[in-house]
Each structure stands twice: as structure tokens, then as C-alpha cells.
Amino acid sequence: MKYLKFILIVAFLVMPLIASGEYKSIDDLAKAYSDETCKTCHSKIHDEWKSSYHSQSVVHSLGGIRNFIVVGLGKEWNKPVSKEHLMRCMDCHAPQLKDASESLIKEVADLIVKAVDQKDETAKKELAKLNVNCIVCHNMKVSIEKNLHGAPEKDTYYGPTGKASPAHKTQKSNVIKSAAFCGQCHGIYTPPDGDTIGCNTLYGSYQDAYRANGGTETCQDCHMKKNNRGHTFPGAYQVDILKEGLDVYADITGVRLHPGKWIPTVVVNVGLTNKAGHRTPDG
Amino acid sequence: MTAKTDKGTIINIGKKEYWEIGMDIDGDHRLGAWQIKEIIDLTLPPKKTTKESFVTELPPDTKSAEVEVKVTRLAGSKSFELYKATKNLNFEK
Predict the structure, then answer these.
(1) pLDDT digits (tens, 9 = 90+) for A94-136
(2) Band of the pLDDT at A21, cuts 50, 70, 90?
(3) What is residue A198's predicted lDDT score, i.e. its pLDDT?
(4) Quick one: closest CA in B to A246, which residue?
(5) Under a CB-based contact definition with an 8 Å cutoff, are residues A84 and A192 in contact?
(6) Which of A56, A71, A278, B14 is the most buried (most CB within 10 A)?
(7) Please, which residues 29-88 of chain B have a Cβ atom closer than 8 Å to chain A?
(8) A209 with B82: Cβ contact below 8 A
């Protein structure tokens, strides 16, 4: 009886804590990780982010995630949708889902399949509430040295300056200015289920080909600071930055080949210099 | 890369694609991120100039040709023209 009392008390104490971290609907989860209050003071940055692919990190990648659910999990691994497995995509595409219940994970997976297979716009609209927003970069993903500095503090926003704000706690972060920070998602990734994933190898070529050949700029230098790009993070879908990253020359000349036959012949010599900090093309 | 002759014929001079082949452990080409464990890197490496040469014979009676060189980037379903050059060549003696 004494033990039963102890178990009951412990259960009552622990249950609400677990419940508060297990969201059962997209709306509740999106509200807990909302970027709405951020735009009150940071409207310009918020507008920039809204135009970026980070704000569409789920809906812009629906095809690939759907294939993992239907083909990878469903046919090849023959495993049901679970939080452990879906997080191999979502730890980067919508890390907030770490706080989702298993039932919400299944709902999200169903919506992804519906949005692609049935071209269901309502499903897509729901999924658009999940993305890589302010909280993801300025809190959740900011500690790549957890053993040294600990996990990010709750309700604290980390930035390159750490400038104090009356609205929230702030902390200066050197990590957020580094390429290693972006490399968490823009590189080869080993998710918690232990099975490596190769959807993005960008950071590998940044380290092994760009840095190894004397390159010193960071992702932020080209994709944020240059031309005041800020939080628009342009990349493979914006022609300006694509042109900036590639120098091309084409020497075109004509020659009459084979003496006596004099066959009109075109000779083209082309040179392509990749000025980006990583292989191109890449994701 | 094309040449349009004075007779209006369009002749293909050549095409070069830069991309990554994603493979599984068995060496089979795969498209799913969960399947890809290795790559064959056919992309343009950073801080390097990649040079290509193309030599194409035109029909013997060609007097002139307009040569066009284009560099296009494909991203998902989108396509972006990054470079274009044209040159008129005269083959008459």
C-alpha cells in the first residue's frame, strides 16, 4: 500500500510535465513554437524569412518526405510510421515535431501523403504551419557543443550580438555565425534512429573542397551578409546568387578541317569556375 | 550548345551535365535520401575551373553558322539560364 501511494504521487507529479511536452494537434504545436510574437519587433527580418525556403521547409520538400513514408518505411523497411523514424526527416524540416505525440506524428505523415498523392491543398495548408522558424535557429539548433555549453536555455533567443531585449532573454552565440551551425542540416546527417541519410552533402564539400583549398567565408557570409540578403537565405532557386557563384567563359571559333576537304568545323572551349563555397549543383 | 547553319539546320555541338550520382551500398543508383550512402561526384568543385572542349564538323556546304553556348541550372522543376553567348562564324574563303 505504501508503494502504491508512492507510485500514485509520482504519477500525478510526472504526468502533467510529460503532457505539456506532447502536443496532439498541429495548431497546439505551432502555437507553442509560434513566430507571431517575433514579428512584432522584428518585422523586416520576419518578412525576409517568410520569403525564404526555410519558411517552407516542409511544404517545399513534400515529395521526398512522402517517398520516405510510402516507399522507405512502407515498402522497404516494412515499418509503421513512428516518431523515431519520421524525425530522421523532421529533425531538420520541422524540429518542433520532437514534442509531438505519436498520434500527431501519424497525422502529419498522413497529411504529407495526402498532400502529394491527392494534391490536397487543405493538407498542404496544415503542413505549412510547420517549418524552420525563428525558434528553430535561434534556440533549438543553436547548441552544437552541448557537452561544453549545455543545451539551449528555454525562452532565450541566441544571436550573433546577444543584444538585450525587453521582450525576451538573449544570449550571444558564436555558433550561429559559423558554417558548422548550418552544417547540422545542410550536410550528411545521422538521425537518432542511427541510419545515415544522404539528402544533402553540401557541408562535406564546403569542408573538404572549399576550406581545404583556402576558402575562408562562411555560409552566412554569402547567403546572408552579402547584398544584404539577411534572412532570405537565397540558394539554388534564386538566379542572382547562382550567377554570382559561377564564372563562365566560352571561346568560340571556326576552322576548315582536313586539307583538301576543308570541312567547316566549330571549336568551343568552355571554362566554368565555381566560386561558391561548395560543390555545385548541390542541395 | 548548338550551331545554326546558313541553311537553317540546327546542329548539336555538345552537352555536358554536372551532377551527383547517389548510390546505395550495393552501388545501385538511388533517389531516396534514406537510400543514398555514397555519391559519385560529377559536380563542379569549389575554387576550381573546369574546362571542356567541343569539336563538331558541320555539313561541307556550310558557309556560315551562328553558334550558341548556354549554361543552365536545373533546380527541382525549375530551370535558370546562367550564361549565354552567341557568335557568328564565317567559313567562306
Answers:
(1) 999 999 999 999 999 999 999 999 999 999 999 999 999 999 9
(2) low
(3) 80
(4) B82
(5) yes
(6) A278
(7) 31-39, 41, 43-60, 62, 65, 67, 69, 71, 73-76, 78, 80-83, 85, 87
(8) no
> In chain B, which residue's Cα lies nearest the Cα of A190?
B34
CA distance A251 to A264: 17
Which residue ranges make up each domain of chain B?
A: 1-16+52-93, 17-47
> ipTM value of the model?
0.95
> Would you give the end-to-end CA distance of chain B in angstroms?
25
| Contact yes or no for B58 and A265 at CB 8 A | yes
Please indicate whether, in this complex, the C-beta atoms of B82 and A213 are within 8 angstroms of each other. Answer: no
**How far are the Cα atoms of A249, B14, B73 from residue B52, in angstroms, in the given order?**
11, 10, 17
Minimal-distance CA residue of chain B relative to A269? B53
Q: Which pTM was predicted?
A: 0.88
Backbone angles phi and psi of A171, in degrees to 5:
-145, 145
Contacts 24+ apart (CB under 8 A), A178-185: A178/A218, A179/A203, A179/A206, A179/A218, A179/A219, A179/A220, A179/A277, A180/A144, A181/A137, A181/A141, A181/A142, A181/A144, A182/A219, A182/A220, A183/A207, A184/A92, A184/A141, A184/A144, A185/A92, A185/A132, A185/A141
B18 touches chain A (CB under 8 A): yes
Residue indicated by cell numbers 503532457: A19
Q: Per-residue pLDDT tens for B16-32?
A: 999 999 999 999 999 99
Rounded to a whole number of angstroms, the distance from the CA of B24 to the nearest CA of chain A is 10
pLDDT in tens, A172-193: 999 999 999 999 999 877 777 7
